[in-house]
User: What shape does this take?
Amino acid sequence: MIYNIYRIVFIQWTGPDSGVGRVGEDPRLAQLGSPDRLLQAIHDPVRSVVTADRWKLNFSPDLGQHELFDLNQDPHEMDNRYGRPECVERFEDLRSRIRTWGKAHSDPVAAGI
Assistant: This one.
């Protein structure tokens, strides 16, 4: 099971044209969704930020599957806090940091978040 998780992450890092784990060639990937949905996930231009106080936001602009983690309490990123009322301000702060960074570094995806 751990191998599957790491292989999926590796596919996302390397992208669909890398020749590694092409969607449709690995039957284990079918458990995660249709080939079209997997390609959407691979191409989603996720932007991330980790703060000095150990909060992490993965912002998913195309699919809207954001992830917000308190790495102090959850170092293995198992408890996604995105969408919880008590975390709205934290989410907006981190999203703003990604946007500011995007504008400063001419990243149109991050600047538009």
The chain has a mean pLDDT of 78. The longest helix spans residues 88-104.
